[in-house]
Amino acid sequence: MEKNVLIVYAHQSAGSFSAAAKEAAVEVLKSKDCSVKVSDLYAMKFKATATAEDITGEVKNSEHFRYAEETKLAWDEGRLSADIAEEQRKLQEADLVIFQFPMYWFTVPAVLKGWFDRVLTLGFAYTKEKRYSNGIFKKTKALLSFTTGSQETMFSPTGINGDMNVTLWPLQNGILHYCGFQVLPPQIFWAPADAAPEGRSAMLAAWNTRLQGLLDEKPLFFTPMDCFDCEKSFQLKPESIEKCVKEFGPTAGTHCGKPLPPNNQMKAGV
Description:
By secondary structure, the chain is an alpha/beta fold. The chain has helices spanning about 15-30, 65-75, 80-95, 110-120, 165-175, 195-210, 240-245, and strands spanning about 5-10, 35-40, 95-100, 140-145, 180-185, 185-190. The protein is built from seven helices and six strands, in the order E-H-E-H-H-E-H-E-H-E-E-H-H. The longest helix is centred in the last third of the chain and has 16 residues, at about 195-210.
């Protein structure tokens, strides 16, 4: 059965390494009989700010505008702006979503953060009951594919930038897993701007190889919702702590004061 892939692409330059990585994904996945759509956020001039302009018609409370509540009502009534509705349609159809971007200030570029803010609206992407392992997009896989400006050693547990697993937690757990996505290990292109041409070619060749089996990959581990006391404190249940906490904590974020599990946000099965 044909798989649908959405690539959300956030780079201004067609000559960039990010563009080459995006084009490689399009080529390989199409050769695997996937239907591939690309949301080129800069080319689309996608609005990065979440404002009342994202709603068609009157808002419920203009004096105290609350974006989540107002966009939930607008989504229910089909009154979200056309650009948001179109991205939500693409997302609903996707079996796999690849976010391709350069890392800016240890996170995503503003235009991609705006895509998350505006597209992943309350009701459409999550509710209080439907989040994390019970999330709305639990049948959809998602992947961060990005370039860094720093060398890999700088993002190590002893590196000056700190552990990349910690850097990734807010993005992979706080956005993707929060909405239920099965989060695949990230594709990180370490400092391609500093690499020799043969080094950049090797990075792209490795990406091409990975793309061949990407849709069959296993996702990263996140502690399931049923391990938490979701009626009161949203803390790990005592029996979950006893079962999950050994030498290391369960995840890079929920670590119970134990050492972080190595590569929890970078490799599946750890």
